[in-house]
Specification:
CATH class of the largest domain: Alpha Beta
Helix content: 40-55%
Number of helices: 22
CATH topology of the largest domain: TIM Barrel
CATH superfamily of the largest domain: Metal-dependent hydrolases
Number of domains: 3
CATH architecture of the largest domain: Alpha-Beta Barrel
Shape: globular
Number of strands: 14
Structural class: alpha/beta
Length: 559
């Protein structure tokens, strides 16, 4: 490792910023910041200066000088390592985001309880930063844009974030190479929630592709006899599987399956045939299997399915369940959100603002619940036959109790119970909270089961089977939170929930009217689990939902 002035200056600069974040000695923090600036501007390299001469350099006192010697001798600074050890990595990463310095990061961490860039972006999406001193709407927007720019350059991308780019590239390729075959494949074709690269199968040659991409300022990053990988300014690898016309569909098929599915496929009689196929349907017919769409080519078990379920489609969503208005941390009024539902052809809106423990989100007190319910009743008269259901996203407290008494909960048409606080839990603690909440008869839907944020927060550990089994016993639906950063419950557990006759509910968790569009990403994820519209609560018509809630209330003997 070369210990140059820039390296030494960076050590002091980071130490200064972390001390500010932790609220430590401001005088020392300032002195380290000044030292970093001084060292960076020095004309000579400190590594070339005799140690006893360091202290005579203008701007370097005894304390800083000793730390410089420490860095030169050990390659690190003990004081910095100690403060890094007690700082979440996500907090350090925030220093890379333009527009938020140490003081704002301290507020984000200490007051908002946010410890990663992804969580911070989600808070921006929920309009939450504006509730804190020093964060206006303009600052929040700038932070959001800076984070989005930063994340675009990290290598992995949410499906929702990369979709428009993928389709744009696909369109340009097909326009440019009209005589060649191109089909998108891989992770994107299987609708995975996180995409590391975009892939195509093509009959174009490597030379043709390279010529086209070089003219468009793409660089070739990898090349083999049968593949080509290029990358442009968007930092997304584009991989091309080079095929002849007679191997096009077998290549498309094999690259559209997970490793698990491919291995199971190879064990089928006749699957290793080298026949020429003119479609993927013909490939399935050759082994006497019903066609399985790419979205389901994940688990080996998909090959053993006997029923031909019709997958849920975006148009099957009949109402918006789980939404937030200006009553808590939403950006639109309740009336505007209802009218937007009507304009978009939805039959109902389940308004579910935050409960009182979510003080950071302007959660509803018991008195404000009564006020909101009065407004709901007025709007229902005004907007009939459209209906707004009275609901709440009720915090699950540390012991699994819900945020209100049963008397208050009984005033809602349905209750979405979610964990929002103290997310760092053992599985034992998480299960205690979840199971207790599920057993409350007023819990209608279990919200974002693990609390995960894709690419940012893994979520607390849970025993999915036990949660689903308990939901089955207590007639509780499980949310598929459709926000592209959540998609929680994970699609990998949808088939088990369906086997146990547990309803799923694709909900946008919308904090703006634009958030309704996220239902589509919930549907795409739900398709991977094989969900049908009959098993999705938000696909119920208004009359069906009213009947379901009425029957459930009667069976559970709710007041």
């Amino acid at each position: 490792m070369t210990i140059d002035n820039y390296y030494i200056a960076d050590q002091f600069s980071l130490l200064s910023k972390l001390m500010d974040i932790h609220g430590e000695n401001s005088f020392k923090a300032k002195s380290y910041s000044v030292a970093a600036y001084t060292i960076e501007k020095l004309p000579q390299q400190l590594a070339d200066v005799p140690h006893d001469k360091l202290f005579s350099i203008k701007g370097i006192g005894e304390s800083v000088g000793k730390k410089i010697i420490e860095i030169l001798q050990t390659n690190e600074l003990k004081a910095l390592q100690e403060i890094i050890a007690k700082t979440p990595q996500g907090i350090i990463e925030m220093l890379s985001i333009k527009g938020i310095g140490p003081k704002k990061i301290a507020t984000i961490w200490k007051e908002m309880g946010i410890e990663s860039i992804g969580e911070l972006l989600y808070a921006c999406n929920e309009n939450r930063l504006t509730l804190y001193k020093g964060f206006g709407e303009k600052t929040q927007k700038n932070v959001q844009e800076a984070i989005e720019f930063y994340l675009r350059n990290q290598g992995s991308h949410l499906y929702a974030e990369i979709e428009s780019y993928a389709l744009s590239v696909d369109k340009k390729l097909k326009e440019q190479f009209k005589s060649k075959q191109f089909e998108i494949t891989g992770e994107f074709r299987r609708q995975l929630e996180v995409i590391d690269q975009l892939s195509w199968v093509t009959t174009a040659t490597a030379a043709e592709l390279q010529s086209f991409f070089e003219k468009n300022n793409f660089a070739t990053t990898d090349k083999t006899e049968n593949t080509l990988v290029v990358k442009g300014a968007e930092n997304v690898p584009l991989k091309f599987y080079l095929a002849q016309s007679d191997s096009f569909y077998p290549t498309l098929f094999s690259t559209s399956c997970s490793d698990e599915f491919n291995q199971a496929w190879q064990s089928l009689p006749g699957a290793s045939s080298k026949n020429t196929f003119k479609s993927e349907e013909a490939i399935f017919a050759a082994v006497k299997k019903t066609f399985i769409p790419p979205v389901l080519r994940e688990k080996a078990a998909a090959l053993n399915a006997t029923a031909d379920h019709k997958l849920i489609q975006p148009g099957d969503i009949r109402g918006i369940i789980h939404s937030h208005s200006t009553w808590s941390d939403g950006s639109n009024t309740l009336e505007d959100m209802a009218k937007a539902c009507i304009d978009q052809g939805f039959e109902y809106l389940v308004i579910s603002d935050h409960s009182k423990s979510a003080f950071y989100a302007n959660g509803l007190t018991e008195e404000r619940i009564k006020e909101q319910h009065r407004q709901v009743e007025e709007l229902n008269k005004k907007l009939s036959p459209f209906r707004i259901f009275k609901s709440i996203e009720c915090d699950i407290l540390n012991d699994g109790a819900l945020d209100y008494s049963n008397n208050v909960l009984s005033t809602f048409d349905l209750v979405i119970a979610s964990v929002h606080s103290n997310l760092k839990m053992t599985e034992e603690k998480a299960m205690l909270r979840l199971l207790n909440a599920i057993q409350n008869p007023y819990t209608t839907i279990l919200g974002h089961l693990t609390g995960r944020l894709l690419l940012s927060r893994p979520g607390y550990p849970v025993d999915h089977k036990k949660v689903i089994d308990t939901c089955a016993k207590h007639q509780v639906a499980i949310e598929i939170n459709a926000h592209p950063r959540r998609l929680d419950i994970d699609w990998r557990w949808i088939d088990y929930a369906m086997d146990k006759k547990v309803l799923l509910s694709i909900d946008p968790d919308a904090h703006t009217i634009d958030g309704y569009a996220d239902c589509r990403y919930g549907v795409l994820a739900a398709q991977k689990g094989g969900l049908t519209k009959e098993m999705n609560l938000s696909s119920f018509t208004l009359k069906e939902l009213e009947a379901y809630l009425g029957k459930r209330r009667k069976e559970l003997k709710l007041g």
